[in-house]
Every structure is written in structure tokens, then in C-alpha cells.
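Annex B.
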Amino acid sequence: MSEKGTVFVALFSGINVGGNRIVKMAELRAFFEELGFSGVATYVQSGNAVFRAKKGDAASLTKQLEAGFEKKWGFYSRIMVRDLGWFERLVKGNPYPQVAGDLTKLHAYVLEREPTAEEIARLADKCTGPESFEIKGDVLYLHAPDGLGKSVFAGLIPRVLKVPGTARNWRSVLALLELAGGAGSTG
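DUF1697 domain-containing protein: predicted C-alpha cells.
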């Protein structure tokens, strides 16, 4: 860890969806700064934050952020915290490079843990449409050629896999990697 700290990305679940559980990004940035983090930047309204932490790992930061968030906003949001190296591996590990340019048809689900072989098999049994998926560690890559909104399979993933997670389209993944790569350089 450098003197400036380690760069992390926090992905929030269930905020600013359908006009519910509204959290303004300026308030979210201030929340991170109040907790002592630096280089804070947010991306789109769905709850994505890049920040630097001088101490702590992804697991301890997740607990700290979830507890502080619930106290401040009065509701729970599952938060997935990952470091810059993890995000770099996510992008390099994309099993669908042929569709990476179609930013809204490729998605990455950041999972709380690596699914078991049984959980993956159960999900594979439900993948009967045009979609395809691959799981690498704690990431589920989904290619939804008709888009996520029209994908019946995408709606089944949380219920069938039963591993908590949060999804981002490839545009968001790349934007977050770019933000994380430059975190702290502007203060």
C-alpha cells in the first residue's frame, strides 16, 4: 500500500432504482470523505464509488461502509468493495472479447463469493435462451445479445444462483476501471 493508500471501488446494490432509496452522488461522495477516504469519485446514479483507503482490506471496508451507510440513510444496501487489481483482472479475464465493444450486451456480476460447482450447474440448467455466461472466481460474465432488459435469464440469476451480487454493464465496468486507475491524481 502506498502512502496515499490503496484504490478501491465500491458497488452499491438497490439504490436509486425506480425512484426508490434515493441517494444523491454528491452526498455519497461526502459520506466517503467523512469516513476519511480520499480521491473519491462517483460514476452514474446507480451507486458506484472509487476511493482511496489508507488502511483496511475489501472485507473490512465493506463492513464499515455498509454499517455507516445504513446509519446515515436508514436502509441497508449490499456493497461490494474490490481493489483496483481485482478490477483489472475482471477486465482482462473477459471470456467474451468478441462482444466487449457492445457495451450494453455484456455484463459483469460482482459476486459476494465464488459459487460452488452445484450452484453453477443449477444456473446453467436455466440458461436456455440466447444468453451465455461464464463464472471466473467471484465474477459472473453475462452476454445478453438482446439486452439485459429483455433477458428472462438475467432475472433468474439472483434467485437461482443464490449468491449475493450486483451487476454492471461493460460500459460501467470500463468507466470504473478508468476512474480507479486515475483515483487520487486530482485530489
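DSSP finds six helices and eight strands in the chain. The helical segments are 25-34, 58-73, 84-92, 117-126, 152-161, 170-181. Further annotation is deferred to the next reporting cycle.
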